[in-house]
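Notes from the 1:1 (GR / supervisor)

We went over the backlog. Supervisor wanted to see one worked example end to end before approving the batch request, so GR pasted a single chain during the call. The sequence is below; no edits were made to it. Supervisor asked that the structure be written out right there so they could see what the output format looks like.
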Amino acid sequence: LAADQGDAFAQYNLGICYLLGTGIAQDQAEAGRYYRLAANQGHSNAQFNLAVLYRDGTGVAQDHTEAVRWYR
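Structure output shown during the call:
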């Protein structure tokens, strides 16, 4: 799989699939994991979505400091 081979765009899209349960069982923690993989590679949409997860405490422990870090 492209996501497992480090493709940031694939990781981001897989995060969306996990978050929404599109074609795969919904798993918000896995969404956060894939968003983080893509975000760490500089994928700006993944960084934003990861920030939202931290802001809301969705699939990750709520952490406003971490949310702000990813928003920046």
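Supervisor's comment: The chain is about 65% helix and 0% strand.
Batch request approved.
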